[in-house]
Amino acid sequence: MPADGGLLARWRALVEHGEPDLFEGALLVSRLVDPAEDLDAARNRVAELAALVGAGEEAPLEALRRVLFVEEGFRGDEESYDEPSNSSVARVLARRRGMPITLSIVAIEVGRRAGLDLAGIGLPGHFVVGGPALGGLYLDPFDGGTLGEPEALSVRLAAIFGAPVALGDDALRPDPPRRILARVLLNLRRSYERRHRWEEALAALELSEALDPAEGSALRERGLLLLKVGRNADAVEALERYAAAASPEDAAPVARLVATLRGEGGGADADSGEASEPAPRRVFSLAEARALLPRVQDVTADAVTRYGRLPGEEERREVAEAWARELTSLGLEIKGLWLVDFDSGAGYYCWKYPEAALSHFHAYEEGFAGRVPLQ
Hints:
This protein is of the alpha+beta class. The protein has helices spanning 5-15, 22-33, 39-55, 60-71, 89-95, 100-113, 152-161, 177-194, 198-211, 217-228, 232-245, 248-261, 286-309, 313-329, and strands at 75-76, 97-98, 119-123, 126-130, 138-140, 146-148, 333-336, 339-343, 348-352, 360-362, 372-373.
């Protein structure tokens, strides 16, 4: 089920030039969750909330906190956090419940209409509101609109990851709208994937591709999702395009999968033409990931040693592919040569050979360059 043609056209018109309007982009994502969603009702609701904020005599920031989090009762959805509806700002406005990023978008838009200069701040596994109107503080809509110092974010993240997180001096650096919308779409896609709703996940990916056409990994994701819905020919085409542009290390396991799908290697059912089912996605607590790390280190160290002793590229490729297969079977995700991620449900614990410990984390959309240290 690709994204509705009219929705996709509106999305492309919104995002093709410069930074898109954050709230309007989030409303279009709401239509992925429910194609019949009344977007005008959501716009009217935000206007009503902004009028309530502006009607008081106190400072605008305090009025915003009073209206949204005291009188209206907006807060985080602890019970059904991962539901696709929590990625819809229209549903969040109607229910007064949501996940951090969609609650933040609501607060930013209501604040903007009331004259407050607010911005979204993406953190590993969490999302808050900052900006000039907060004077160096942050506002946490998921936690009922609490205000905090930047240092307190480490405590909040430690509760998520099970270990303290060291944040840099630029922890409250605002994210541009394009990046925020990419994160909303990724959250929605992961939610659909965890429910095996592959067609809806493909529709979310289609909007992500339009948002950032240069993001090469989207082709790999598209190919894997197409496999899930049984469109093997389309999957092979997407995976081949990805492998042609990727680094040799990243391309090798994809090329092997393509060969399997074409019946050129082991692991395929010759009668059905389908690849064997990949290992299910596994979510790790930090304790579980660290308990598994010694095995990952041993497997990787052995592969690195054998890889370095081989003179031929083909033999090296076989070693790297065998390493990737073994670690994938444990539920890990391979992100490069000797680079693996443990899915935490909120992002990835990240390890790269020869690091002595599992001591870094990055959000789903950040990648290796955006990882932060776990203390």
